[in-house]
Design goal:
The complex is a heterodimer of chains A (306) and B (280). Chain A has 2 domains: 4-76, no CATH class; 101-300, MetI-like (MetI-like fold), CATH 1.10.3720.10. Chain A contains 13 helices and no strands. Chain A has helices at 4-36, 46-51, 54-60, 65-68, 79-90, 101-132, 134-147, 156-165, 171-194, 199-207, 212-247, 256-265, 269-300. Chain A is elongated and about 90 Å long. In chain A, 42% of the residues are buried. The longest helix of chain B is centred in the last third of the chain and has 36 residues, at 187-222. The chains are: A mainly alpha (306), B mainly alpha (280). The interface between A and B is large, with 56 and 58 residues.
Chain lengths: 306, 280
Amino acid sequence: MKSVVPVLSVIAAIIGFWLLAVIPMNMHLVADQAQRDGAVVMPDTPIARQEVSGIALAVKNPDLIPLTYDFNRPRLPAPQQVAKEMYDTIIGQRITSKRSLVYHGWVTLAPTLLGFVIGTGLGVLLAVGIVYSRVMDRSVMPWAIVSQTIPILALAPMVIVVLGSMGVQGLFPKSIIAAYLSFFPVVVGMVKGLRSPDAMQLDLLRTYNASKSQGFWSLRLPASAPYLFASFKIGISASLVGTIVAELPTGARAGFGARMLVGDQYGQPLVSWAALFAAALTAAALVGLFGLIERITLRRMGMQAT
Amino acid sequence: MMMVVLACVLWALGWWLNVRLANGPGSEQMAVKLAIPLIFGITILIVWELLVRGFGVNPVILPAPSSVISRMSGEGAILWADFRQTILKGALSGYVIGAGAALVVAVIADRSDFLTRGILPVGSFMAALPIVGTAPIFVKWLGSDWESKAAVVAVMVFFPILVNTVAGLKDTTVMQRDLMRTYGAGYWPTLLKLRLPAAMPFIFNGLKIGTTLALIGAIVAEFFGSPTVGMGFRISTSFGQLALDMVWAEIVVAALAGSALYGLMTLAEKRVTFWHPSQR
């Protein structure tokens, strides 16, 4: 709890920097607009204004500064503009409306969660296979590690289109990408977790004459819980990123990714920024949720949550 | 049909060979440890090739490895130009800028306990966010050449490296710091001789996470606007022309580049953190 004040100050500093940056970023656009509206602007042609920096322009035309915070199509929207747009599109709309961010959020979240469940399920199965089979360990594990260095996320849009051309549409293509991205963190973390019991603990089970399955259910699986939760947190945010990237350049009509792109293409930066922040909030909520489950589970299992 | 049967037979053969190798007497030798995943990978490639031919899979859906390889050898010049634009100009410059900025900010933040406690949670929160979504914004701000890609990459790699460095700089014990004080060492000697070296395992962890992020950022950002060269550009245009073998060729290049960058970091880590228990 003692880190609340420092965290808040860091956030305040970021917002302060943002507020300052709004002025030079939007100054040229505001000056152009003001001149068209008949105001006197210091360097009086747009070409002359291009020569000076946004800061210099703000110093010469101090009366235009307030306008940068309320510009319609800003290069960098002010925080309160983004907040207002988010409020309008999250609370101000019916959640079934195409303009509601809740609707778009669900379009993104549903494949993320489905993919995450598939990915973690398969990941845990493969991890069990790797731990109990020497061949799987030796042949698959190196590739699982190498595969994490491959920028597969960059291909997400292509996978969507290929599957779309094969007639697979809707929730499923995006889920495959989300599943793929959560799969390997879970495999790697789970293998580490299932191997975490030390020789002494395994020996103890052997003195009890415990069978392999008993050893799995009562020692290896519980011991892997902290590792599993760490992988869950990595996996769920990777899944969400994957779904969003999958929506970005594929002409998807709904979802956070689609909103970001639509705002960008139709000159409505506020839409993009609101979608970006809503996606950030969703990611934070998901990671936070898993953190909470982790804490409760580990406490009930008698382990220290980290 | 012959091809499919052959594929099944080859798969069984490869698996049997690996079972023999893994459970055989020489399974702890380095050569065998290397051979098993190689056999596995090559078996998958051959089975893939045979299945694609056997079932007559449309090359628009999945090209055979052989056509990808022939594409790679035929289009070497284009692939090299794309590699230079995306990896060397976009990803690497962004990576260096982001990592450098993260190290500087971490050292500054480390001077005050207040800042450290503020930056750690915010940074690890930011590291989990879909920062790659800022790509369209950066492309709009900085134009479509490599500068915008470098900016996206820099922001993406900044937070993981920052969090790891800040955590690493705290990883010295009171005893070690007291020892430095008895030597009469001030802030800078302590930082350079004790705390930065002690933080190296953490820093390299962040740097390694950053390598994949850098490639992803550079390629994805090119989907939103790029000059007529670059891996992201090539992937999306080849895709439009249904030249999937070219797309796969770019994927192979990206995979090689990603693994090479990661391997380079691992190598550097081994040289720098030779003292750490995990390296001995």
